[in-house]
Amino acid sequence: MNLDNVKNLGWRVTMAGVGINLALGVIYAWSVVKKAIPASWEWSDFQKNLPYSIACLVFALTMIPAGRAQDRLGPRWVALAGGVAVGVGMILASLTSNVTMFVLGFGVLTGAGIGMGYAAATPAAVKWFGPHRTGLIAGLVVAGFGLASVYIAPLVKYMVGAFSVTDASGAVDTGPGVQMVLMILGVAFLVVVGGLSQLLAVPPAGWKPEGAPVATGKKPVVYESTDRTWQQMLGTPQFYLLWLMYAFAAGAGLMIIANLAPIIKLQAGAEAGNYGFLFVALLAIGNAGGRVCAGVVSDKIGRRATMLVFFLFQAGLMFVLPMVNSIAVFAIISMLLGANYGANLTLFPSVTKDYFGLKNFGVNYGWVFTAWGVGGLVLAQLSGLIYDSTRAAHKASLIADGMAETAATAQAVGNYNMAYTLAGVFLVVAALLLSLLRHPAKASEPAGLAAAAPSA
User: Fold this and answer.
1) For 165, how many CA atoms within 13 A lie in the half-sphere containing its CB?
2) What's the average model confidence in pLDDT over 212-236?
3) pLDDT of residue 354
4) Angle 251-255-256 (CA atoms, 0-180°, nearest 5)?
5) Which of 124-128, 360-364, 415-419 has the highest mean pLDDT?
6) CATH superfamily, region 14-203+225-452
7) Residue 213 above 60 pLDDT?
8) What pLDDT is recorded for position 212?
9) Which has the higher per-residue pLDDT, 294 or 362?
10) b/e code 67-90 from CB counts within 10 Å (16+ = b)
């Protein structure tokens, strides 16, 4: 095949990836759905987080086989399968109010579909561009995922209200609204992701992009590694350091995403809670912006330096969250939390490519991405347990003060303060782990040369 005649489809594939992720990012609007789950379903806070947490975990675990399939079969059919799974899972969840069936539909099927679509979009795009644009292209593609809540959160809020049922006494049942939202979005995302998947493609073997910068006497920020298989990658200490840092950093952000709408109501008041979906949208704007910004900055100053800035900044935000009760401050912090979380979704795929090569990037990043799922599962569920336990303690204190149990049950509230603190500590640990991270030696070099290479 004459590689000189190959048309560069990089920007078409990049925009298709952005579009796919704009649908798959429905997971980031979960807190709006969670807030609308009616009391009549009798779900605890822990149970309300389960569909989201399981979806995060299944999403991450699916990235491994989906990345391998993408590397071997190409992105088109992997993304199509993902669109089908997302749609079917949401439709199944829309037919029930049972937490187990909800977890099976939204958590397992939709989570797996998101993993397939996500695994196909980013590798397909970055393969059309040189290493000098890895951060930028990865940031643009995953920005669609982060930006999804900008339209999904208010859309969910509107549709829940439109399809909720009011009985003769004036009580509003939001259950039908939640179910109809999932049905409509499930059908829509099946069609959209399925269609856009057919625009994905990868360049033929041996093809090289034009426009890479000419080498100069300056040390490059990014040190290109030889291609490593996932088995070779798992034999390096760099993988385990990256995995731990990703779990800590992403888990902190996913914990906030799971609970943001209820957090606003809890800390800023019931009236502010009515506009929780707007704060979710603000977080999404920050999320998308952080992904693009981190990509561009890390291409200039290196991945490790950029990670350090974002880890410590996010830790600081976590430590001040218990003291925040102002709507205006929450608006600012929502965007900053989104930006710091979103940066991870650009930095970790970029450093995976830098350290372990492009050939097996799909499956390699799938293994690294399992940290995202584990971090999201652990911290989101931990936050639910902390809220339930602090609420139980508040209820007990109200009863001890003489309040009737029924009234105490209605008035008792919990908090997430300990969850914020733990997340902040994990982020500081992630920053400390960066001091141990070095680019792995090339297979043909003595191990000692890796430390002398320019670090990413």
Assistant:
1) 10
2) 67
3) 87
4) 125
5) 415-419
6) MFS general substrate transporter like domains (1.20.1250.20)
7) no
8) 53
9) 294
10) bbbbbeeebbbbbbbbbbbbbbbb
| Cα(124)–Cα(6) distance, integer angstroms | 16
Residue pLDDT, tens place only, 239-253: 999 999 999 999 999
Q: Which of 100, 107, 108, 110 is nearest to 43 (CA)?
A: 100
Residue 369 CA to residue 64 CA, distance in Å, equals 8
Contact 351, 391 (CB under 8 A): no
Alpha-helical segments (H) within 302-360: 303-320, 327-356
Stated pTM of the model: 0.76
Cα–Cα distances in angstroms (integers) from residue 8 to residues 3, 153, 381, in the given order: 11, 35, 44
- With contact defined as beta carbons under 8 Å apart, do 456 and 222 qualify? yes
User: What's the first-to-final CA gap in the chain, in angstroms?
Assistant: 35
Nearest residue to 121 (alpha-carbon basis) of 224, 243, 12, 226: 12
Spatial distance between the Cα atoms of 88 and 82, rounded to a whole number of angstroms = 10
The span from the CA of 18 to the CA of 118, in Å, is 10
How many other CB atoms are found less than 10 A from the CB of residue 418? 16
Question: Any bridge partners for residue 366, and if so which?
Answer: none
| Residue percentage of the chain with pLDDT more than 70 | 92
Q: Which residues share a beta bridge with 172?
A: 166
Contact present, 121 and 200 (Cβ < 8 Å): yes
What is the reported pLDDT for 192? 95
> Once rounded to an integer, what is the mean pLDDT over residues 44-71?
89
Q: Which residues contact 10 (CB under 8 A, 6 or more apart)?
A: 125, 128, 129, 137, 209
Q: How much is the pLDDT for 407?
A: 75
In DSSP terms, 173 is beta-bridged to 165
Residue written as tokens 């670090």? Answer: 455
Cα 26 to the center of its chain, rounded Å: 10
**Phi–psi pair at 166, nearest 5 degrees:** -110, 125
Environment class of residue 165 by beta-carbon count within 10 Å: exposed (0-12), middle (13-18) or buried (19+)?
exposed
Q: What is the pLDDT of residues 371-408, one digit of tens each?
A: 998 998 899 889 989 999 998 898 888 888 888 777 77
Contacts of 118 (CB under 8 A, 6+ apart): 21, 24, 59, 63, 66, 82, 145
Q: At what angle do helices 327-356 and 111-126 cross, to 10 degrees?
A: 60
C-alpha dist (Å) from residue 344 to 53, 243, 247, 248, 254:
18, 12, 10, 10, 11
Please give the backbone phi and psi of residue 173, each rounded to the nearest 5 degrees, phi first. -105, 110
Least confident stretch, 13-17, 113-117, 164-168, 347-351: 164-168
The first and second tokens of residue 308, run together, are 């350090």
- Rg of the chain over Cα atoms, rounded to whole angstroms, equals 22
